[in-house]
Design a protein that fits this description.
Elements lengths: L10 E2 L2 E9 L4 E8 L5 E6 L5 E8 L8 H8 L12 H6 L4 E4 L2 E2 L3 E8 L2 H16 L5 H7 L2 E4 L9 E4 L1 H9 L3 H13 L21 H11 L5 E7 L3 H11 L23 E8 L10 E11 L3 H15 L5 H8 L5 E2 L4 E3 L4 E11 L4 H18 L3 H16 L8 H16 L9 H14 L1 H11 L4 E9 L2 H18 L3 H19 L25 E5 L2 E7 L5 E9 L11 H7 L10 H11 L3 E9 L6 E12 L3 H14 L5 H18 L4 H10 L4 H10 L1 H11 L7 H14 L5 E7 L1 H15 L35 E5 L8 H23 L4 E7 L4 E7 L5 H15 L5 H8 L1
Parallel strand pairs: 4-11, 12-17, 19-23
Antiparallel strand pairs: 1-2, 2-3, 3-4, 5-8, 5-11, 6-8, 7-8, 9-10, 13-16, 13-17, 14-16, 15-16, 18-19, 20-22, 20-23, 21-22, 24-26, 25-26
Length: 894
């Protein structure tokens, strides 16, 4: 289906069409509307895509760190005027065929997006979202559940300790325990001390309890008005129907008003500022090389599109790859192990900023890191950059601009987030999607005009609004914070009179009653089982042989990009080498070759591809414990660079240099830091893998490759001196010899149809460069522990991730469909209430994997451990007593 474009003089359902502009580089057309009565802005991105997206955004500018914007984002989804049910958002998750459904709080906006390929589902979700944001119930009981509340540890027992509970409160305790998140928040606070960006829109755990219910309501009244709204749709559904629906169901009930949400520019420092702050680590942790040091500069205003676009290119020049001067100098300095999270240029706020730094430092080296950064910038301001470097940097930005997908969001939402800052602060949603012409201008003129030398001097070297921020580890901080809070709560409890105690008991009982009363769920729209397509959408492909290698070709609209996937079967790999395969995958694209250093290879990868990545793949076989393992190499490029992409991959696969011990040591430490930083946000995945490891052979391999076992292996080798890495290098060379063989290779190529035919000759030449030899069987087979494991791992996070996994049956078993439905019933009807609503965790998940035959329950950012394990034990009893009806079963199937 393709929507018909509105006419330029259209006045549709109270909306006036202000502008229609084609974006041929992305095969899009943007239609901009204004609702005459309410002042609501509406953008429709017309695209030949049936994954239609809709989002409602508001400019939200909190003036403190109580988390009011974040808590409101949760609370508006707890019932509305038309849908006065307990939890319409989570109820719609199980009544929908959505491809994405969530709500997002950023520094200066709150967004409610969804996407779906089903037309009926689209309008069902649109109706629920519109009513939620414009007409929410905002009940105090929901504020207390989602935000924060004082409650006894056992809610009905005043003899138990007093605690602070709440979903957002616990979520932010987990988020702020992550050094990466903490660094980003503290840098914003330092760069923006007087405007909204200095506040934590998600909420600081110590400030969240200060937010009152009335302040929440006031925030909604001020910011959630159509005059302050930004509505956007994307896809091939006709926009006229969208406009009609929104006008009649919401906007016609409002009159335009001045939003008063403009964000002033930050008052600039007259001299650079320095900040040193602690972050918590466990008492048993090694404190060596645990500090993070980052410099930040406030740069151009968002409306200065010329400098903002050029600063994006400059950031790519400085830190876009390991051979970039600032990236290289920082790592070669020996002052740290990896670049800090957030290093780069940020253009998603009212004013842009640039940040750069090192993690894995000693706290005393802060000044040395700052000196190194400034010395490199000074040199770059004097010598400039070569045309080759400029071309490579712009290539990376052009690639990101053209790529459809590539992240966790549907493409329509990716586009909306890309243009939102310019739309909010410059009333210009179009310019961020028209950057190719500016890139071309920069490519052609930057060296002659010394553009980047000027930008470095203006925005970095001569800019007094610079901050130096150091986060240093403190083993006692977590204990001090916990003891301080316990003391405050104990003093607060001691000061309660009998009436106040009774009030807390009544509030807890009211919340419990509300959680037991879902409301009239029949008020919510739903799909029927008949709406589910009875057949999968088939993807056309051609299977053939090329250079005696099985190949699959997929013709898709890729916007000028070719995607290549190589899969090498690894059944011939000896079992003792298997745990080392993830390390091999990390090292392979980051090393040099027999003829060129890693710096040269890095430059070539940046100049010609969208990256080269290696990974492990595991495919389980239904009905058995068998599985296949493979090494996967992926790359992508603009069509004009296909020859260079194939040349690079061939060089890496046939002559990678594993004798550069110093570079290997450097990459291993970067890997260690990256994996450790990822644990707080992925604790639930680590918990599931650890719990699954003793149940199936594939579960053990997943833990070995991607779990705590792999983290320990990476730590071991990262802590090994470079001069003692020969045993590891020997294993890397054995892996290359065992796996890189055309006889074990399958490949997939995805591009537009005419491009595939042009790429095939290059592909054939590439394949003929790879080794071809008989396959040798492995001398040792993989094994896994036969005894069940009950593990617990301690981190510095103040919240937990608790998993329980059961061995069940695979999908060919007659009971497999029932287990799939049961997993949905347990999540929606039991775990959501017990783990999230009552327990205060950010989430509780249930999954049934029909390939592995594993049934999992896991909590995310959970303040409990023992209680959660009891909830899991009680789950079987809940299911056995049949606490669900036919409607629940239908929704679970949906």
């Amino acid at each position: 289906m393709k929507s018909s474009p509105p006419q330029s003089d259209s006045n549709l359902h109270g909306f006036t069409l202000k502008d229609s502009t084609a974006v041929p580089d992305l095969n899009l057309t943007l239609h901009s509307f204004l609702h005459n009565q309410s002042g609501a802005r509406y953008l429709h991105i017309e695209a030949d895509d049936d994954n239609n997206m809709f989002g409602i955004g508001f400019k939200t500018t909190p003036q403190n760190s109580t988390g009011v914007a974040h808590i409101l984002e949760h609370t508006v989804l707890c019932g509305s005027r038309k849908y006065p049910v307990r939890d319409p958002f989570f109820s719609m998750l199980r009544r929908s065929l959505n491809t994405f459904m969530n709500a997002l709080t950023s520094s200066d906006w709150t967004l409610y997006p969804f996407s779906t390929c089903n037309r009926t589902d689209f309008y069902n979700l649109m109706g629920v979202y519109i009513d939620a944001v414009f007409f929410p119930l905002l009940r105090e009981v929901d504020f207390r559940q989602e935000g924060h509340r004082l409650e006894f540890a056992s809610s009905d027992d005043p003899d138990t300790p007093l605690e602070i509970k709440g979903i957002v409160y616990n979520e932010m305790k987990g988020a702020m325990a992550d050094p990466s998140s903490l660094l980003a928040r503290r840098l914003n606070r330092a760069l923006f001390p007087t405007v909204t960006y200095g506040c934590n829109s998600g909420g600081e755990p110590e400030e969240i309890p200060a937010l009152s219910y009335q302040e929440l309501r006031d925030f909604h009244e001020r910011y959630y008005h159509p005059s302050n709204s930004y509505l956007c749709s994307y896809g091939n559904l006709p926009v006229e129907k969208h406009l009609e629906y929104i006008h009649h169901h919401a906007l016609k009930q409002f009159e335009q008003m001045p939003p008063h949400t403009a964000i002033p520019r930050e008052k600039r420092y007259s001299a650079p500022q320095t900040f040193r702050l602690p972050y918590p680590v466990d008492a048993a942790d090694d404190l060596d090389q645990r500090a993070l040091v980052q410099l930040g500069w406030l740069t151009s205003p968002i409306e200065d599109r010329e400098d903002t676009t050029a600063l994006n290119v400059l950031a790519s020049l400085l830190i876009g790859n390991p051979s970039a001067p600032l990236y290289r100098d920082l790592l070669d300095s020996g002052l740290g192990l990896n670049l800090t999270p957030g290093t780069g240029f940020h253009d998603d706020l009212r004013e842009t900023y640039f940040a750069a730094g090192l993690q894995g430092c000693e706290p005393k080296q802060s000044e040395a890191v700052e000196t190194q950064i400034l010395e490199t910038l000074t040199r770059c301001s004097e010598t400039g950059f070569t045309q080759q470097q400029i071309d490579a940097a712009i290539h990376q930005l052009e690639f990101s601009y053209r790529e459809v997908g590539g992240d966790a969001y549907p493409y329509g939402l990716t586009l909306l987030v890309r243009l939102l800052a310019s739309w909010l602060h410059n009333d210009d949603p179009l310019t961020p999607l028209q950057t190719l012409a500016r890139y071309k201008e920069i490519r052609n003129t930057a060296r002659d005009t010394k553009l980047f030398e000027r930008l470095i001097r203006t925005y970095l070297l001569n800019n007094p609004h610079r901050v130096s921020l150091t986060l240093f580890p403190d083993t006692g901080l977590k204990t001090r914070q916990e003891q301080e809070q316990l003391q405050k709560l104990a003093e607060l409890k001691a000061g309660l009179d009998s009436q106040q105690v009774q009030e807390l008991l009544v509030q807890a009982d009211n919340l419990n009653t509300a959680q037991e009363s879902p409301g009239d769920l029949e008020a919510l729209p739903t799909l029927e089982l008949s709406d589910i397509p009875r057949s999968e959408q088939e993807v056309d492909y051609i299977q053939s042989q090329i250079a005696n290698t099985p190949a699959w070709y997929f013709s898709q609209p890729t916007n000028g990009i070719a995607y290549l996937t190589l899969r090498f079967d690894i059944e011939s790999l000896d079992s003792e080498l298997s745990p080392y395969l993830p390390i091999f995958c990390t090292l392979l694209p980051q090393l040099g070759t027999a003829g060129q250093s890693y710096l040269v290879i890095s430059e070539r990868i940046t100049a010609a591809t969208g990256g080269i990545r290696a990974s492990t793949q595991l495919s389980e076989q239904a009905c058995t414990d068998d599985f296949t393992r493979s090494l996967e190499i992926r790359s992508k490029c603009l069509y004009r660079y296909q020859s260079e992409m194939f040349a690079l991959i061939a060089e890496l696969l046939t002559s990678v240099n594993f004798d550069d011990y110093e570079r290997i040591h450097q990459v291993l430490n970067q890997l260690r830091i990256s994996v450790e930083n990822g644990v707080p946000g992925s604790g639930h995945s680590y918990a599931i893998r650890a719990a699954s490891a003793s149940l199936t052979p594939s579960g053990h391999l997943k833990e070995s490759w991607n779990g705590i076992e792999q983290l320990q292996l990476v730590r071991r080798w990262a802590n090994t001196p470079a001069t003692e890495l020969e045993p590891l290098v020997s294993k890397m060379k054995q892996i290359v010899t065992a796996l890189i063989n055309r006889n074990s290779l399958r490949l997939m190529l995805c591009a537009e149809e005419d491009a595939i035919a042009k790429i095939q000759p290059e592909l054939k030449n590439f394949l003929e460069k790879l080794p071809l030899s008989p396959l040798n069987p492995a001398t040792s087979a993989p094994s896994y522990p036969s005894s069940l494991a009950h593990d617990g791992w301690i981190t510095s996070a103040p919240v937990a991730y608790v998993a329980r996994v059961f061995r069940t049956v695979t999908y060919s078993h007659p009971e497999a469909p029932g287990l799939a439905v049961l997993s949905r019933l347990l999540r929606a009807g039991y775990l959501h209430r017990e783990i999230r609503e009552r327990g205060g965790a950010y989430g509780g998940l249930v999954s049934n994997d029909p390939l592995s035959g594993l049934f999992s329950m896991v909590s995310y950012m959970d303040p409990h451990i023992v209680r959660t394990l009891q909830v899991y034990r009680d789950a079987a009893e809940w299911a056995a007593t049949g606490n669900f009806d036919q409607t629940d079963i239908k929704e679970a199937i949906l």
